[in-house]
Design brief:
- By secondary structure, the chain is α/β, with parallel strands linked by helices.
- The chain has a single domain, classed as Rossmann fold, CATH 3.40.50.
- It contains eight helices and seven strands; from the N terminus they run βαβαβαβαβαβααβα.
- The chain has a seven-stranded parallel beta sheet, with helices on both faces.
- α4 runs parallel beside α5.
- The longest helix is centred in the middle third of the chain and has 29 residues.
- The chain is globular and about 55 Å long.
- Bound molecules: nicotinamide-adenine-dinucleotide (NAD).
- Nicotinamide-adenine-dinucleotide binds next to α1 and α4.
C-alpha cells in the first residue's frame, strides 16, 4: 500500500532547497530515495547542493529551478521527471511563502502572491504529477506542507496565510480516499515553528506583485526576524515526514503548543452546531 520503502524511489520536493523542504529532501535521500529539488531561488539551490556534497550524497540529488505558480513550467518539470526517471513516486508540495501584513492594507497583489504560491502551487503539483503517478501504476505518496496556522484562529495579519493553508488541508483530506484507490497515499504536514528562511518571503515575491503590495513594511519587518533557538530543526521534521509517509498518516503535526487554541476553535464550531436532526441518506450530499 503506497510507499513501503524509500530505497530506489524518486521524490520531487518543491521549495526543497531551504528549511523544511531541505530537511525532508535530506532524510529521503539518506533513506535511499533519488531526490529532485525544485526551487525558485538559485542561491538556495547552491547552498543545498553544497550541503549534500558535504554529506557525500551528491549522487542522491538533482536540482531544477521552478516557480510553482507557473503552470507551464510545472508541466515541463513533470514531463522531465517522466522522461528521466519514469515518473515520480513521492511528490512533496512544500514551497510556500510566509505572507503577513495588515488585513486592511492588503491588496490584490498580496492575495495573488499568498494564494498563488501556497494554494496555487499545491494545485499545480497535483494537476501536473497526478496523471503520471496513476499511470505508472507503482503507487506513491503526496505530502503537502500546510501549517498549524490552518488549525487555529489566527490574527488578522496572518489571514491570507491561514486561509491559503486551510484550503490546502481541506483539499488533501477530501482527495485522500480517491487517491487511496490508486495506491497513492496523502499526508498533510502541519508544522509549528521550524528553523528556516521563511523570513525572506519578500525576496520570493515576483516583481509584478511588488509595486502594488500593501505589505511592504511587514515584509521588511519579517526580513529582520531572527530564527529562534528553540524552533525545531528541519531534519527532525524530515524524519517525522518519513515516518508519516510510510504509515500513510493523514496529519503529521510537529508541535503540541497550540493544542488549546485548536480545541477552542473546534469547540466553537461544535457549540454553534445544532444536534443531529436527520440521518443523511445514500443519495444526499453535504
Ligand atoms: N518555518 C516554519 O516555522 C513553518 C511553519 C509552518 C509552515 N511552514 C511552511 O513550510 C513550507 C516551507 O517553508 P520554510 O519555513 O522551510 O521556508 P523557506 O523559505 O526556508 O523555504 C521555502 C523554499 O521555498 C522556495 N520557494 C518560495 N516560493 C517559491 C515558488 N514560487 N516556487 C518554488 N519555490 C519557492 C524558497 O526559495 C525556499 O527555498 C512553507 O509552505 C511554509 O508555509 C513553515
Amino acid at each position: 500500500m503506497g510507499i513501503t520503502t524509500f530505497a530506489g524511489k524518486t521524490a520531487f520536493v518543491t521549495g526543497g532547497a531551504s528549511g523544511i523542504g531541505l530537511g525532508i529532501a535530506k532524510v529521503l535521500a539518506a533513506r535511499g530515495a533519488q531526490v529532485m529539488i525544485a526551487d525558485l531561488r538559485p542561491d538556495h539551490i547552491e547552498d543545498a547542493l553544497a550541503d549534500f556534497a558535504g554529506a557525500g550524497q551528491s549522487n542522491q540529488v538533482a536540482t531544477m529551478l521552478l516557480d510553482v505558480t507557473s503552470r507551464d513550467a510545472y508541466a515541463e518539470a513533470a514531463a522531465k521527471m517522466q522522461a528521466d526517471f519514469g515518473g515520480v513516486d513521492i511528490l512533496v508540495n512544500n514551497a510556500g511563502v510566509g505572507l503577513e501584513g495588515p488585513v486592511l492594507g492588503a491588496t490584490y497583489a498580496d492575495y495573488d502572491f499568498g494564494f498563488g504560491v501556497n494554494l496555487g502551487g499545491v494545485i499545480n503539483g497535483f494537476v501536473s504529477f497526478l496523471p503520471q503517478m496513476v499511470a505508472h501504476g507503482r503507487g506513491g505518496h503526496i505530502l503537502t506542507t500546510a501549517s498549524l496556522a490552518a488549525e487555529v484562529v489566527m490574527p488578522g495579519w496572518m489571514a491570507i496565510y491561514a486561509a491559503s493553508k486551510a484550503a490546502v488541508c481541506h483539499y488533501c483530506e477530501a482527495v485522500k480516499p480517491d487517491l487511496a484507490k490508486e495506491n497513492i497515499g496523502v499526508s498533510i504536514l502541519l508544522p509549528g515553528p521550524i528553523k528556516s528562511n521563511i523570513h525572506e518571503t519578500g525576496q520570493n515575491r515576483p516583481e509584478h506583485l511588488r509595486a502594488a503590495s500593501g505589505f511592504g513594511d511587514s515584509e521588511a519587518q519579517l526580513a529582520r526576524r531572527e530564527v529562534g533557538d528553540w524552533w525545531m530543526e528541519p531534519e527532525t521534521v524530515g524524519h517525522m515526514c518519513a515516518h508519516g509517509i510510510l504509515a500513510d498518516r493523514t496529519y503529521i503535526v510537529t508541535h503540541g503548543i497550540f493544542r488549546e487554541q485548536m480545541e477552542a476553535r473546534s469547540r466553537a464550531v461544535l457549540e454553534a452546531t445544532p444536534a443531529a436532526d436527520f440521518q443523511m441518506g445514500d443519495g444526499d450530499s453535504i
